[in-house]
Design brief:
Blueprint: H1 6-34, E1 39-54, E2 61-75, H2 101-129, E3 132-134, E4 139-142, H3 147-151, E5 158-162, E6 165-166, H4 170-178, E7 185-191, E8 194-200, E9 203-207, E10 212-216, E11 219-221, E12 226-228, H5 232-258, H6 270-283, H7 285-302, H8 311-324, H9 330-360
Antiparallel strand pairs: 1-2, 3-12, 4-11, 5-6, 5-7, 7-8, 9-10
Helix pairs in contact: 1-2, 1-6, 1-7, 2-5, 2-7, 2-8, 5-7, 6-7
Length: 361
């Protein structure tokens, strides 16, 4: 594949991130409008405004900003882009703080929900227009002297479960094996109508292009491959299944990160995402749409983490309010918000360091 130019990476990054961020903020905006909360600013990006306009019907300032690494909606009574309430905001008509607890929870949750919906719709769009390729999780061939052969996998085995995760197709199996180089995995396979437990340890194989060790099993898929366009209902069901499964895989990735099992090359910052999105765009519209769906689901799930300044942090404040019967004091919220922002900025610096290291290396 030809080397990506900076322009291709920039175009891919903007084409991928802009609709994902827009849909996320649109979820917040839609729920706020339903609750009667005034949205003062709807921003794609942070920092100085490049261009924008003010809607006469709502007095909302729609803007595109200089730093395209996210976005926000600022509602009446908010002190900043992180939606920290200013003192006395609960007494201001049309403010976020004046809305009922139920509406505030819905407004905050609507952003991640919108990302999940976008992911499902993009999956469904591909399956309706280009079709869905399905490769069953059946072993078509076991190569000799490989981890699969040593563990006792046989041709015709159908892999049903790995490490407690249900396996729907060959791609699911390949993904779990790839992320587990050198780690023993508990397989459940169906053989002659019987379920058999096997322990398989994928062999680590280094890929210089990715700077990554990937688990190698030593099997080939069956040739029983289907490819068909799905009707809208079936496409949405399949898209929902894929969105849910990818959500599970993202949570597994976070768990591996917490255990120190994730490799540095698996952590991608803005530059890494730009390279991946530019490469996907170079490969064609279908890989790019599928990548956008994955990023949208990823963004929705990450935003639900209970970290102050993320949507999950706000939801944690609201659940405290529901249990305690009163909101967390504004001073405590401000301290936690500053801590959350510091944590996110530190994380951004770390992933940017990894990105630049890979780029220079």
């Amino acid at each position: 594949m030809p080397e990506l130019s900076a322009l291709q990476m920039t175009i891919g990054f903007l084409l991928l991130l802009t609709p994902v961020v827009f849909f996320h903020e649109l979820g917040h905006y839609w729920a706020a409008r339903r609750a009667g909360v005034v949205v003062e600013v709807f921003s794609i990006g942070f920092g100085p405004e490049i261009f924008g306009w003010t809607a006469k019907s709502t007095d909302t300032r729609w803007r595109f900003a200089a730093i395209p690494l996210g976005g926000y909606v600022r509602m009446r009574g908010d002190d900043n882009a992180a939606s920290a309430p200013r003192a006395g905001a609960d007494a201001i008509k049309g403010s976020f703080a004046a809305a009922s607890l139920g509406w505030r929870i819905l407004i905050v949750a609507a952003g991640p929900i919108a990302n999940f919906i976008l992911g499902i719709l993009l999956f469904a769009l591909v399956y309706m227009t280009f079709g869905k390729i399905e490769i069953p999780a059946e072993i078509g061939e076991v190569m000799p002297d490989t981890p699969a052969a040593i563990a006792g996998l046989q041709e015709g085995d159908i892999v049903t479960e790995i490490e407690g995760v249900s396996i729907r197709n060959f791609a699911d199996m390949r993904g779990l094996v790839a992320e587990s180089p050198g780690r023993a995995l508990a397989f459940v396979v169906s053989r002659d109508d019987m379920l058999i437990d096997l322990t398989v340890t994928p062999e680590p194989r280094y890929f210089e292009e990715l700077d990554l060790n990937i688990g190698f099993l030593g099997v080939r898929s069956t040739t029983n491959i289907t490819h068909q366009r799905l009707l809208p209902g079936s496409a949405v069901v399949a898209g929902t299944s894929d969105a849910f499964y990818n959500g599970v895989m993202i949570l597994r990735g976070l768990a591996r990160l917490g255990k120190g099992q994730m490799q540095a090359a698996e952590v991608q910052g803005p530059i890494g995402i730009a390279k991946i999105s530019g490469s996907a765009l170079q490969q064609g519209i279908v890989p790019f749409i599928l990548l956008t769906a994955l990023i949208s689901i990823n963004l929705g799930l990450i935003n639900l983490l209970p970290v102050p300044a993320l949507d999950g942090g706000h939801l944690a404040f609201f659940f405290y309010e529901a249990v305690a019967g009163k909101p967390l004091p504004l001073a405590a919220q401000a301290v936690l918000m500053r801590f959350g922002m510091s944590l996110l900025l530190t994380l951004m610096v770390v992933v940017m360091f990894f990105d630049l290291s890979r780029l220079i290396g």
